[in-house]
Amino acid sequence: MKRSSRLRALLVMAALAMPLAGASELPDLGDASRAVLSAQQERQLGVAVMREVRADRAYTDDAESNAYLDALGYRLAASSPDARIGFEFFLMQDPTINAFALPGGFIGVHSGLIIAAQTESELASVIAHEIAHVTQGHIARLVAGQQQAQLGSLVAMGIALLAARSNPQAAPGLLVGAQAAAIQSQLNFTRDMERDADRVGLSVLERAGFDTRAMASFFERLQRSTRLADSTLPAYLRTHPMTTERIADALNRVEGLPYRQVREDPDFQMLRARLRALDGAPADAVRFFETGLRERTYASEAAQRYGLVLALMRNRDHARARRELSALRTLAPGRAMVAALEGDVLVAAGDLDSALAYYPRALVAHPRYRPLVYDHAELLLRVRQPEAVLALVREQLQVHPNDFRLYVLQARAHGLAGRVLAQNRAQAEASVLTGHLPRAVEQLQAGLKAGDGDFFELSAAEARLRELRSRLVEARKGG
Known about the structure:
Helices cover 68% and strands 3% of the residues. With 479 residues, the protein is mostly helical. The protein has a domain at 3-255. The protein has a four-stranded mixed beta sheet with strand order 1-2-4-3, sandwiched between helices. The two termini are 25 Å apart. 48% of the residues are buried. Mean pLDDT is 82; it is low at 1-32 and 161-189.
């Protein structure tokens, strides 16, 4: 099986997604699942799977896309039953209409789902359902099938379960030995879990201020457009069984709720335009957005022009991109996504002096918008200003201490300045955050061998190395 196919199978099973409501409620198994699979183990399992996800070609680290998903996801998570869970949201560049939850609060969204959603509430309804799977402990119940299970066997069981959900024909070969019956019995829980996630997700959607009718309307539209063979169904409908009764039940749930006028974040339509502009041949993308503007077939003119500017930049028509950008600024003043695009246009056109003057001003207006931070740091590295990068990253790490990208930028800046120990310390922190503990230990050891730090830096690195070695020993015991 190709690596991407194996990962897709792994993702589809960990992914329990959103068909809509049913009246039955799950028994309260949350405490029982935690007795076997602790929150820490579930997080470790999620980190292990995320190592595979990040290595897949479909995984994208597009800063603007992830910044939007973070903002939307955190808004929903704050209204969830357990807001203490450290959720992480990320984008998969995949045209299928799908989304999935992994153990430990990692939630992936396919680009095809974002493009298919017509409103922000429709996208939010899917993510709310995925959040509910995590907060209700559904994934923990699926993988914690053995009492006294160790982390290593849970990972293996998780992969088998994922593959079984993705390819039922492969299940007999995967569900072998004494585990087979236990795994199959747990798969039978998923319909009730879906109903439970429908119920909780709808509540999350309402409390977060979105249109609760979006849940049923989105999936109703998907079903109407795909009433052919199962092979034509969107991945979301294939991997998350949905019935007419569940859609009807969701409609019944919201029937008595008061109508709410929902204000959509303009960044939602811009994100849809961004994903279209980054897909396929640049010239085709330019024609798509030009046609939409000419025929006025768009949900948002600002988003359509945003997509056109990005497509023109990809097509190396920098002069026209700058002209169109001027019109876009008028349509969408003060938008962080537009500010980041303006910096990208300047850099792509080779106007580095203007870009160097631009980014500090843009960050004054949008000090916490990380795509601008990343782009500014990349430019400073390009013009060999490592100390400026370090100052920028140091400030951001005070607000976002778990952003591995900031540590990668910090490592590159130290490397440019010739500080080997500091470079390796930053690389080690990035490795810890992405689940590569052995690599982090090796990086710290290499940094200490260089011996180019002062007494305090060496002492801090040695203390961190001892801590990571201890964590590695504990992790191996658990595996």
